[in-house]
Specification:
Blueprint (H helix, E strand, L loop, with lengths): L3 H4 L6 E7 L8 H11 L3 E5 L10 H13 L3 H7 L11 E4 L2 H7 L1 H10 L4 E3 L5 H14 L3 E2 L1 E3 L5 H9 L5 E4 L13 H11 L7 E4 L5 H7 L5 E4 L1 H7 L9 H20 L3
């Protein structure tokens, strides 16, 4: 069952941001989530760091390494977001890889995510068949929604199988490369999005990989329901790193960077 927060997402132009837990500093996670929510994003993807994030480009890989060096781990993350829903009212997804979730204990991982108010999980390297056979009961037990990744090479039959599982949304990869690469105009990508839009799917389709500016966001949402900005936002947060750790100055810097970044996507273009 989808959470009320997911059911209240807009039908079009969903604006999502990806950030890495524990980056740029260990204690920034909760503040970044709060500032993103108050700045007006529609949903947030919170990455839990892993030492070998194979689907991610250099910017997010670097944020993973820095977060781990800062001391971020799943126990630390769940402690940091224990009171998430006291200040953040938009959908929040945990995004990361199966290995650390399994090492933590997958049922414990799903249970603790649910206790913190997490709406769904994005685990790119979880095979769909394993989800159906092994993990699906846990998602259902703890009311956590799955998210499935779709590429231009995913067959229609498989996409329909994803859709039948009633995911939070379908994560549409704009390219088969890693995150962070700049998108160029592509008739092939346009045809891919049109193909999806004509399938009559029930799930929202949200595009990720390479969406880093308002023009690109507008282009990829022409035939889809929204888009995710990741590497560009992580780069923006790098400007906070190393600033004075005085609480008020730190919070002001975080707030200013985030509000400025989000504003460019929220204003009409």
């Amino acid at each position: 069952m989808k959470s009320k927060r997911l059911l209240n997402l807009p039908d079009r132009s969903i604006f999502s941001i990806f950030c890495t837990a524990g980056f740029p500093r260990l204690g920034d996670t909760e503040e970044v989530l709060y500032r993103l929510a108050t700045a007006g994003v529609d949903m947030i993807e919170l990455g839990f760091p892993f030492s070998d994030p194979v689907a991610d480009g250099p910017t997010i890989q670097d944020s993973n390494q820095r977060a781990i060096a800062n001391g971020m781990s799943l126990p630390v993350l769940f402690a940091q977001i224990a009171d998430l829903r006291s200040s953040v009212d938009v959908p929040v997804f945990l995004m990361g890889y199966l290995n650390p979730a399994e090492q933590y204990g997958f049922e414990k991982f799903v249970r603790d995510a649910a206790r913190c108010g997490i709406d769904g999980l994005i685990i790119p390297d979880m095979p769909f068949e394993e989800y159906q056979e092994r993990y699906k009961p846990l998602y259902k037990e703890y009311d956590i929604s799955p998210v499935f990744l779709v590429t231009s090479r995913t067959e229609d039959q498989r996409i329909r199988a994803f859709d039948a599982e009633q995911p939070a949304f379908l994560y549409i990869l704009s390219s088969d490369a890693v995150t962070g690469g700049a998108l160029t105009d592509s008739q092939e990508r346009e045809d891919f999005f049109v193909r999806l839009s004509r399938m009559g799917l029930q799930s929202k389709m949200v595009v990720g990989f390479g969406v880093g500016d308002p023009d690109t966001f507008k282009a990829v949402t022409k035939h889809t329901h929204g888009a995710i900005v990741g590497s560009a936002f992580v780069k923006a947060l790098q400007s906070i790193e190393g600033r004075d750790d005085d609480l008020k100055r730190s919070d002001f810097a975080t707030s200013s960077v985030i509000e400025t970044f989000v504003k460019q996507f929220k204003e009409p273009t």
